[in-house]
Each structure stands twice: as structure tokens, then as C-alpha cells.
Fold this protein.
Amino acid sequence: MRASFVSVEETATPGRILAGMDRAGVDELPVVGDDGAFRAMVERRAVQRHLYDRGEQNATAAMMAEEPIASAKPGEPVDDAIGRMLAADLTVLPVVSAQGQLEGLLVLDDVKRVPDLVEAVDEGRREHAEVAEAGVTRLLTVCSLGSAALGMVLLALWIEGPAYGLPVWVSWVDALAALLAFVGAVAVSSGEMFSVPLWAVAGIGLCFAAGVGHSWHDGIASTWVQLVLALPFFAMMIAIGAALPRRLRIGHRTAHVTTGP
């Protein structure tokens, strides 16, 4: 970790910031206040844009800085900090105390000088991502098969329901829900998020059919099965709604990991 003086004050101008970056050999520096408190991070691209594209030679670091994507704490394991850098595709990471003071700067090029450290962290992240991906794949498979099975049950209710006292219009709701279930099964097996709203519509439709069908028909026995079948749709909606975005984040982070030589 580099010392906290590898930083710029809030009033620093573009020329001074670029000079500090060149001396430190980095493309991003932390911005600190007069009291040494960490404020934000300023990137070389932002400085060059203000200086060369807009001709704002008197722009200050405070004007060009942005909130950091990630930061580290002084006492945390270096593996965790490096993993956070790789996940966010960062080359520098500010180390900030619990009181908000800048304690130093972790630079990826410095860390790479430690033999096999970055590679080991990267490998650990990849293994974790593979385990998480395998779990999501299993969940997708279970939900796909479950949705197809629910579709078969609903299809049978559509065909045979009226013979057992099911209101005809409720059986047609079952037919629509069956169609949504089959489409949802195919959609989730290919990793498409639109399976989530399909299952939501199917579940809501079955709940509606159960509630209204019971109020219009003698006895709850004719519509209770619709309410029971609605619950798995809502469960799948919640599970896949949480799993698929996570899968996208894992893929995005893995694709951006660059360890270098």
C-alpha cells in the first residue's frame, strides 16, 4: 500500500493532478480535504477532458472527482481488497479508515510484484463464480421442469375441469396459465428474464380464478386447486428474479478480470 500523500487536494488544478499521476504511475488518484479526509477519486480521462477538450485550466479536483466504485479498510485481508479491485476492474483502490481518513492507496501494479498473489485471488474468484453459476444453472433447470409440469396439470384442468364441476371460464384461465407456464419453461431454460413476468401473470390469474370462481360457485372444492398451483409460480418468480441478475453480474465481473503478466 502506498502512503496517503499519494493524493491531491480538492483545489488542485488539472496540470497539478496530471503531474501527480505521472509521478505515481497511476491513472486515478484520491482527492482529500484539508483535514486529510477522503472525498472522492479523480481519473486521468476526466482531467484531460476538462483540460484539453474544454480548456478549463482552472478546474479543480473537487469539480472533476467522482464517488469511488469501491474502497478498502486498513485492517482487512489484502486478498479481499484485491478481489474487490478485480471485480470492479480497478487499477487503484483507496484505503479509507472507519473515520473517513485516507490511509493509503492500493495499486494493482504494485500488488502484481508479489509472486502469484493476484493470480491466486483471481483463481479463487473464478472458482467461486463457477460454483455460483452451477447453482444458478441447477435452479433454472428445476424451475423449467417445474413450470412444464405445472403446465401439464393446468392443461388437464382445462380439458377435464368442467366435468368435475369446475366453472368453464375458470378452466379457460387454466388454459391461459398453462400456455404461460410452457412459454416460461422455455424462456427460463434459455436464461431469459421475461419468464418472470409470465409466471407472475399466471399466478395472479390463478389466484383471481380461485377467488372469483369460489364466490360464484357452490363450494371451494371447485377452485382451491387454482390457488395451490399459483404458489409455485410466485415461488419461481422470486427465485429466478433473484438468480438471473446475479448470473449476469457474475458473467460481467468474470469477463472484466485482467491479471496481466
Summary: Confidence is low (pLDDT under 50) at residues 248-261.
